[in-house]
Amino acid sequence: QVRLVESGGGLVQAGGSLRLSCAASGRTSSAYGMGWFRQAPGKEREFVAAVSFGGGRTRYADSVKGRFTISGDNAKNTVYLQMNSLQHEDTAVYYCAAGYGLGLQSRYDYWGQGTQVTVSS
């Protein structure tokens, strides 16, 4: 079992930045990749960014390429999502997940509770 806890969400003006963190505990020795997903009101949850176990591969949704960066700190069992040039359309609840997919939601076995990101225009 893996427990994931997100933090770092909040209210930011358009053009600003936020860094989300996701701390993992439990069976962190498993070779899980990590991903970030988001769900805006009235919309389905969508893929944002993913990193493979060990950090060798990353993948981003087209809507965030060049603005968001996913990274990890294995020593702290934490994955980050640096979000720059935020837009109103980035407003959503952001979830981190652990699993064996590189962005495919169905391949993620564990999910955090989510953190709200609100971008004011």
Can you walk me through this structure?
The chain has 121 residues and is an all-beta fold. The chain contains no helices and 11 strands. Strands 2, 4, 5, 6, 9, 10 and 11 form a 7-stranded mixed sheet that branches. Strands 1-3-8-7 form a 4-stranded antiparallel sheet, with no helix packed on it. β4 and β5 form a beta hairpin. The chain is globular and about 40 Å long.
Q: Tell me, rounded to a whole number, the average pLDDT.
A: 94
Biggest beta sheet summary? 7 strands, mixed
Low-confidence stretches: none
Question: Please, how many helices?
Answer: 0
Gyration radius (Cα, Å) is 13 Å
Order of helices and strands: EEEEEEEEEEE
Give the overall shape, derived from the CA principal axes. Answer: globular
Helix content: under 10%
Number-wise, the strands total 11
**Category by helix and strand content:** mainly beta
Strand content: over 45%
Beginning-to-end CA distance, first to last residue: 39 Å
SSE map:
Blueprint: E1 2-7, E2 10-13, E3 18-26, E4 33-39, E5 46-51, E6 58-60, E7 68-73, E8 78-83, E9 92-99, E10 108-111, E11 115-120
Parallel strand pairs: 2-11
Antiparallel strand pairs: 1-3, 3-8, 4-5, 4-9, 5-6, 7-8, 9-10, 9-11
Give a short overview.
Helix content is 0%, strand content 54%. With 121 residues, it is mainly β. The strands form two sheets. Strands 2, 4, 5, 6, 9, 10 and 11 form a seven-stranded mixed beta sheet that branches. A four-stranded antiparallel beta sheet has the order 1-3-8-7, with no helix packed on it.
For this entry, give a set of tags.
globular, four-stranded antiparallel β-sheet, single chain, 121 residues, seven-stranded mixed β-sheet, mainly beta, 0% helix
